[in-house]
Structures
1.
Amino acid sequence: MTPPFHEFDLIQWIREQCPDSQTDLLGIGDDTAILQPLKDRELLLATDMLMEGTHFTLPPATPELAGRKALAVNLSDLAAMGGKPHSALVSLALPQSKGPEFAKAVMQGMIDLAQEFQVQLIGGDTNSWQGPLVINVAIIGTALQAQSVTRSGSTPGDWIFVTGKLGGSIHSHHLTFTPRVDEANRLSQSVTIKSMIDISDGLASDLFHILDESKVGAQINAAEIPISNRVTLDHPQTSRLQHALSDGEDFELLFTVSPEDGKRLVSQNPLQIKLTHIGEITQEQGAVLHHADGSRTSLKRTGWEHSLSGQKRND
């Protein structure tokens, strides 16, 4: 028989695992946390809710990996804005069929990643119910520069870059990826990032968020898109390129810079991971895919589509 779930026992355990903050705040233990915003930096706020059966499945995911992913996707959002993480609030809806060790395992995965990225867990809420595991994280960060990076800063002629390799995230990568917080920091120290987004729904979907907000278009070189070795042709009718364009949950950075800064990045990559120039921003709205044989096709918004009736593949 599953032992009874005691909320305050879990909260006390979480409090013991999280070191005292070295910053000016009041964390776990009161009705609210207290923060002192920085006067010379923008405050960045984001939240994501992850649900068992939609964003992860137990198994093959472990409770630790589910908790890790819940924080990691929020860190990825901060990276996309050129931000530095500060603290986070965590809310859990725990299955009543699971015991306290399950809850601790979920939180341990999150705590380990929080310590790696120097994030203070400062509060939240816990409940149990008859449904599956649901985790919500609200993260707080600050812009690394005087202003954060948005999706709306691209202009015609800008070069388009992507970090890492794309596709095949379903093969565990969506649970174990490294949020590109440090990479965004290094890039911002090397060049002026004009627009940026993290690739969560797929390159062919997330690119259009930049294009729409900046009111521009793009031409993409198909041969330059970095395809991950994770991509396997489980479905012969789907090419490796299509996987890289639309699989989603790569959590790499897609960003634009001026041609001058682009040349600088090509000649000297400031990152320890792959950095690829995949195309340019154009005046004409829409996106065109240039193929190695000289042909051109319209790039469609393929990837994950979010709706109130559930996520679905939009191919």
Note: Residues 7-143 form a domain with the 60s Ribosomal Protein L30; Chain: A; fold (CATH 3.30.1330.10).
2.
Amino acid sequence: MNQKYKLAFVCGKLGDVDGVSLEVDKWIEVLGSLGHEVYAIAGSFASDLPMVPEQKRLEVPELCFDSDFQKNIELLMFPHIIPGNRSNLSEHNRKELLEDLDLKGAEAADTIHRFLLDNKIDCLIAQNTNAMPMTLIGGSAVYKLASEYKMSVIFHHHDFWWERSRFSGNHMEDLLKEIMPPDDPSLEHVVISSYAAHNLRTIKRVNPHIVPNCEDFDHPPVKDEYNSTFRMDLGFKEDDILFLQPTRIVPRKRIEDSILLVSQFQMKYPELKERIRFVISLYQGDELDDSYVTGIQSLAESVGVHLDLIADRVASIRGVDAQGRKLYTNRDVLVNSDIVTYLPIWEGFGNALLETVAARVPLIVATYLVYKTDIMNRGLECVEIRDDYDEKGNLIIPENCLGQIYQFIQDPGVRAIRTENSFNAMKKAFGMPVLEKKLESILGAYGDEILASRRRLSKSNTTFAV
């Protein structure tokens, strides 16, 4: 592909440790290596984007996930956003809110459009803005840029609003159906799994490209001078057994199942109990309610699992915090861990899974839907727990899985062989060359529309003197 473009990513936030931010980083790296010029637009930048200099970034605070407007409209429009919350929304107030959203979306679109004109951007790459209603102003703005300004847009959908129970029974169904995502044939759509592709084809009659989460297996996480101090810094002993949950704390991750698994493992192997620590590396998720976090803490205490929440020491890039303490990346945490628990009931794909494999750390995984459809038969060697749940809703942990975990932890030879086999299998299926090939194909297929958008943008930026 010889044609080179100016491409601008747009998202509620970038430079963070969430899955969307991590995938954007990889797309930026690949697109830059292919010779494209990359820009970034976000409500906030949690950290620096090394491959996108500051002059190529635009911060639009109205797009933030936690803006006052976003928090207010979520509470009123989504009555199940917080358990027990029931918004009292009159029809008059509902219409006023939607009108306000439309106005703010138009203002944000105007701001972004000026940035696109000034920098002669060819195409927007919208990251989940029109799949999840967590930046409603962002979703409205991108929709207006596509439908009113006729900007070429590639929508990269990581998950969809109809997949989350907290967005069900909402008071803005018609708008969500219209813009999340739009189905105009001049737009391009990308999803991250075959299941999501089937879902989008069925619900929206849109035929998307499938680009799975990918990982840089050529530059995997390793122990080095920087992260060698992790255990000492965080108060762990060298012989502690670290069970790591390398994710955010959100209900769909089913962290309670990981805690119960660790508890059962301790009961089966009591001689190891005093050495075991269950570590969660990332922060509370984007939900407004924090009851899940306190519930996890209470559960761990009740079943005798030593829980460590270390999100305040983990960032997307290495550095120091306000107290001058070292900040580690999730990859640094991974290479210092003994085994990873990853038991979600639902996952768009599985960034943490790929990072774990790249770090050559043993993995315990539940067979969530996308794992079964897109990952399961690719050669991964791990402790696999079937997604069966008891009458209380807890994952059923077979006895033989505990034995497999023990072998991974206690037998370095087994650990080395099986993690290396997993590394090679996942590298072939989900390495960066796979991402490069797919992005080249998408830009090639969408090239005519991108060039047409370039011409339209050029004309709209022309002024005439009379």
Note: The radius of gyration is 23 Å.
